[in-house]
Hints:
mainly alpha
Amino acid sequence: MNTPQVHVAGSVYSRILWFYGIYTLLSNAAFLIGYYWLPEGFMRGRTAGAQVVGEAQTFLGQLGLTLLFNLGVAAVTGIVMNLIQVKGISLGYMYPLVLGVFSGLIAGTNSFAASDITQYNARDGMALALSIGNLEMLGYLFVTASTVRYGVYQYRSLWQWAPTKVKNLRDVRLAKPEIICLVIGILLIIFAACRETLMAFNML
């Protein structure tokens, strides 16, 4: 029985555009659902990591925790999901869906751990959203889209418990555009974390 081959759809740039389009659509829809139908703060108890970050008392402490969470947890999650493929399709393709719904619900219900968006007018709030949350999520999408080739374990269906290992992680070779996008994604996450920390300490 032949093992399904790793399927990499399009170039890394087209994957990023698709990811961002799907993420934006779901995020906007989830925002409206959260704003109109869910109580304010509904997601706050479901963001334990963000609450830990928000409790840091110093600028460097909060920045370090933010980077630990954003790079060490959120970004790595996209990479880990790319290790698993079902019928040649990376599980990482699901990540933009999860990010879109989650980020939209948090914003729509004002469930941020370290800030209250009701204190900002529409213009200032939009600027902060685009220069912090949007850049952060875009960084996650860059990282995820550029590591699709990491597919190591293949499942023939969602119900198969025993995967087939098709290659070793050390054998993965990313193309030059994928490496560039991976670096850009990491830099976007770092930049967004810096601005997020500045906002939390009222330094913006």
